[in-house]
Amino acid sequence: KAGVTQTPRYLIKTRGQQVTLSCSPISGHRSVSWYQQTPGQGLQFLFEYFSETQRNKGNFPGRFSGRQFSNSRSEMNVSTLELGDSALYLCASSDLQGAGELFFGEGSRLTVL
Amino acid sequence: AQSVSQHNHHVILSEAASLELGCNYSYGGTVNLFWYVQYPGQHLQLLLKYFSGDPLVKGIKGFEAEFIKSKFSFNLRKPSVQWSDTAEYFCAVRSSGNTGKLIFGQGTTLQVKP
């Protein structure tokens, strides 16, 4: 089986812009979660989607949003980018309706200038 | 709020030394516990997990962990480390019902000297 695939792998944006990141889960996995990884804050949970519905949400401002499509692929969007949004954004998928282990992608590294 | 604490931020060992990384969590209910590893330039990979049953869990590459409920701990161990174990190690907790939401510790960077 192919692993979790995230695109793009690297991107550079400027403050005020918006960005959309994409995640394709492992085939058959319907739960997709997003995490932000920074040197200062570590790994922080953003949100989880299951069957096109947001099922769980972390403590991030409304500028961070996501969605899931009927084929379980997911996107996350960050609007009005701030310098502090520079991070590695990780996507993870899980089977067993989200109760299984999480399989992580390689991440999308966002740099905000 | 739930939290996970990893005792050591940076550990340096020589090859063949024994390893123990501490992990404590704060949550009184049922939990799933995980140790993930991130090798340089690679994605997070699962080392081992505890869902229920035998509290001594064996994972990949000779790693094991013991869940001690009374101490809210899930320490990672390996009897003899190798240079290839150089990586960052993360402990994570998921509380019952919180599918997809892992609370991670800050991570421990392990450097193994050949």
Structure characteristics:
A: 113 residues; B: 114 residues; mainly beta; 12 strands
What's the topology here?
The complex is a heterodimer of chains A (113) and B (114).
Chain A: E1 5-7, E2 10-13, E3 19-24, E4 31-38, E5 42-50, E6 53-57, E7 64-68, E8 74-78, E9 87-94, E10 103-104, E11 108-112
Chain B: E1 3-6, E2 10-14, E3 19-21, E4 23-26, E5 31-38, E6 45-50, E7 56-58, E8 64-68, E9 73-78, E10 87-95, E11 103-104, E12 108-113
Parallel strand pairs in B: 2-12
Antiparallel strand pairs in B: 1-4, 3-9, 5-6, 5-10, 7-8, 8-9, 10-11, 10-12
Strand content of chain B: over 45%
Uncertain stretches of 5 or more adjacent residues of chain A? none
Class derived from helix and strand content of chain A: mainly beta
Radius of gyration of chain A: 13 Å
Annotation field: number of helices of chain B? 0
Number of helices of chain A: 0
Please give the largest β-sheet of chain B: 6 strands, mixed
Structural class by SSE content of chain B = mainly beta
Task: Spell the H/E element sequence of chain A.
Answer: EEEEEEEEEEE
Distance between the termini of chain B: 41 Å
Characterize the overall form of chain A: globular
Percent of residues in helices of chain A comes to under 10%
